[in-house]
Amino acid sequence: MPDYSAPLDDMRFVLENIVDLPALATLPGFEHAEPEMVYGVLEESGRFFAQEFAPLNQVGDTQHSRRNPDGSVTTPDGFREAYERYVQAGWAGVPFPAEYGGGGFPWLVAIAMQEMLTAANMGFSLCPLLTQGAIDMLLHYGSEEQREVYLPKMVSGEWTGTMNLTEPQAGSDVGALTTRAVPADDGTWRITGQKIFITYGEHDLAENIIHLVLARVPDAPPGTKGISCFIVPKFLLNEDGTPGERNSLECVSLEQKMGINASPTCVMAYEDAVGYVIGEPNEGMRYMFKMMNNARVSVGVSGLSLGERAYQQAVAYAQERRQGRAPGAPKGESSPIVDHPDVRRMLLTMRAQIEALRCLAYLNAESLDLATNHPDEDTRTRAQERADLLTPITKGWGTDLGVELTSLGVQVHGGMGYIEETGAAQHYRDIRIAPIYEGTNGIQAMDMVGRKLPMRAGGVMADHLAAIEDTASELAKGDEELAAIGERLADAHAVLKETTDWLLTNGLSDPNNALAGATPYLRMCGIVTGGWLLARAAQAARDLLDAGEGDADFLNQKLVTARFYAEQLLPQAAGLAPSVTAGPSDLLHASF
Ligand SMILES: Cc1cc2nc3c(=O)[nH]c(=O)nc-3n(C[C@H](O)[C@H](O)[C@H](O)COP(=O)(O)OP(=O)(O)OC[C@H]3O[C@@H](n4cnc5c(N)ncnc54)[C@H](O)[C@@H]3O)c2cc1C
Question: Is the CB of 313 under 6 A from ligand 1?
């Protein structure tokens, strides 16, 4: 059974050196989240996830969630019990307000926990992830009564939540949805329509499921301007708030998928189901946009999570498996494959990108926390801008890397990687969905060039570029090793700046210019931002070593990783420039 252990030292290094957890813990509302307490929470939850959920990962993959003839859904063996213990331990509510029974911790802590839970069992982790999205929506836009009725049970995990956007004709184009909501005499609504691909739309883990459903009210304007959001509980509530009569909705089938087999992906049918509008009718899309960042960062983190799990497994396998003789090894003896340069290349490529991704995801989460809790308005605004800019990168680059990292994990295993028994293939199959849902990565790239790049007339991206340039200049003053990293970072910065300028100049005059280059540009942003953050990690490691603090072996490895990234991965950014600036001509002339 493949093991997973939470990479607590690596996580702590990022929390202390790339983001500023101690400073976050001084902000109003986060005072109790002092670093030692947070490390305790991460250590304990990491152990819990590794013990409870990691061993169920392969069980979930082989057994799948199953739909019964009566429409109920049974999750794989062990999931119910593990979920019950998860709820009892209080892990579900860590980032939510204390007034609803949550822990009131920063989102940064939730993201670190999400990293571990998803690595332990991605198929399971989607249940809390979707519930978090639904909680977030109710926190921001639910009425006081709705918050009081639903949130305590959802925050505790006793009830779970879903997000119902997709319909057969409405995927990326959410505005094409046709599910109807008609007002009833008593102020409630009746919802009718079919939703597809609904994650954990039906299951046996919790006593109630709170569906958030996007639908159209009568005379709603067409497209995204006419979308409203409704609470549609599986069981309507009794006067005392307990689940009562069954609502008129059901899971009519489950999809057979490539991966995340434990996660039931449901076709949901609503037939005059009782619903309660959230906020104002026709404002649903605006509400969804507001809370998209959190969900997109979480999905981006799944690339990190499965990359980390695949890496741990690949390292263990490479140390054990013996083949051929590595250069310099004694004659007549086979070497563990970890001694072969090409296997080391794969492992170090994995490690470097995983560490870069962790820095990026945590920085993104910290920006979200600063944007909500910092007392200074200007700081809040800047933090929100940074979160907005980083989110498509975390989601798009993070999940693309997730696929590449898990593929490398398979490759390190050789033929055994292709055989299901090792579990390496499962990570690859599981993560393949992540570039597709929560806005495909093509849509993320369009968001980057169409919405994020133009923020403050390019000013937000200019600030980001300036931060990268500052780090490069700072490193130039360091020792030979840091200066070399700084030099590579300066080159990558120049390329990103040049292509950004090209997009700002040519993309506004002809949107096709920006759309044609959007995906390579998003990747370039990821590669360079990752290089920037690992350069900062190198600098922090050097400072700690010079001060005689920390574990020297651990810190020296940070330098090795950062140098490898700067020298061998960061230069890939320049190779993308021609695709970003090519314009649409070839694409539009091709016939299919
Ligand atoms: C396992 C799984 C779980 C899911 N969970 C949920 C859930 O819980 N709730 C929910 O509501 N939905 C869920 N989804 C749906 C998911 O969010 C959609 O599949 C996704 O948004 C893409 O929509 P689509 O499948 O219709 O693809 P399409 O929109 O048809 O896209 C097909 C391709 O065309 C591209 N494309 C589409 N439009 C454009 C455009 N304007 N410009 C450029 N390229 C474009 C896309 O990038 C993609 O490559 C889930 C899906 C799966 C498979």
Answer: no
Select from 130, 199, 440 the residue to mutate for testing ligand 1; criterion: most ligand atoms less than 8 Å from CB.
440
In whole angstroms, give the CA distance from residue 531 to residue 573.
10
Which is nearest to 172 in space by CA: 518, 445, 442? 442
Cβ atoms within 10 Å, residue 402: 34
Region 560-568: mean pLDDT is 98
Instruction: Give the predicted TM-score (pTM) of the model.
Output: 0.98
Ligand 1 center–CA 390 separation, angstroms: 21
Report the C-alpha gap between 93 and 115 in whole angstroms.
16
Cβ–ligand 1 contact at 556 (below 6 Å): no
Atom 13 of ligand 1: nearest residue by CA position: 197
**Residue whose tokens read 């990479």:** 7
Beta-strand (E) ranges in 307-421?
Answer: none
Place of tokens 């109003």: 28
Backbone angles phi, psi at 477, to 5 degrees: -85, -5
DSSP state of 192: E
C-alpha span between 356 and 363 (Å, rounded): 11
Query: Catalytic residue among 255, 438, 474, 498, which?
Result: 438
Tell whether ligand 1 has an atom less than 6 A from the beta carbon of residue 373: no
CA distance between the termini of the chain: 46
Within 10 A of 553 (CB to CB), how many other CB atoms are there?
7
Q: DSSP 3-state assignment of 166?
A: coil
- Would you place residue 509 in the very low, low, confident or very high pLDDT band (cuts 50, 70, 90)? confident
Average pLDDT taken over every residue of the chain: 97
Residues in CB range of 590: below 8 A, 6 or more apart: none
Rounded CA separation 49/81 (Å)? 13
Q: How far, CA to CA in Å, does 590 sit from each of 478, 520, 586?
A: 50, 19, 6
- Mean pLDDT for 176-181 is 98
Closest by CA to 132, choosing from 95, 164, 174, 99, is 95
- 185 CA distance to ligand 1 middle (Å): 36
The answer, yes or no, to whether any atom of ligand 1 lies below 6 A from the CB of 584, is no
